[in-house]
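Now for our specimen.

. . .
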Amino acid sequence: MKKVLIIGGTGFIGKNLILELKNHYKIKCLVRKSTKNSNIDFLKSSDAELVYCDNINFDSLNTAINNIDIVIYLIGIIRETKDSKFKKLHCENVKDIIKICKKKGVNKIVYLSVLGINAKVTEYFYTKFKAEEELKKSKLNYIIFRPSIIFGMGDVPINSFISMIKRHKFVFYFSTRKMQPIYIKDFTKCMRLSLRKKWNKVYDIGGKDALNLEEISDLIIKRFGLNRVRIKIPLSLLRLMSLFPNPFLTYAQLKMLQVIHTTSFNAQKEFNFKFLSFENYLRKLK
């Protein structure tokens, strides 16, 4: 059985990917020593081999990339902090992985990017774009996944939005471009199936339906039979609010939501199974 190193295995996507892969691959995870006990328990219950580190850097990556066949890099941040920077986490770590893989004879890397990527829009997009470029010129085998927004049990953005609409009489929303929400279990199944397909590919991948934020709120209100007053917030006001400390959305996040997050690529046909629509996912919720 081939062995996969997952970097970012304790996040929403990482946990679901481990559940998808664990019966098909041996799994190894690089985890910080500060990782929550509940996440460590999850990894151990999934029979994952753990490599502990203080920080994800060249030395910790070099230790983890031993006796494996595929590296899967899932780490991504939406906001920078003092200790977490876009350039380091999105790009520089990938450059280190490429160097280490070449040295140790590991020639397959999977990278999690984002649908609608545009290097000129934000630093988030730019650093993801630069990582993609590093992989493409590395001469290693790569798969790049660019998903739209991902939903499912455990995701924060969509489930927080659902919870807010269920709790409050007034629903605040703003204009966004279309996105193609994809169910987490469909996405991770696509990732698993891709590992046995032709490498050196970029998958722009979305779900069954193209929806904006207003349409998503409509489906939620309809599903739960709610009587809600919808209030549209002008983008100009949100941009102003983004200048204050700890805003609900940063200016960069607002810019990214004005980028089209849809694709003409037919992932259902490519991977030969039917995706769960966002509307049908809502029907599964209480």
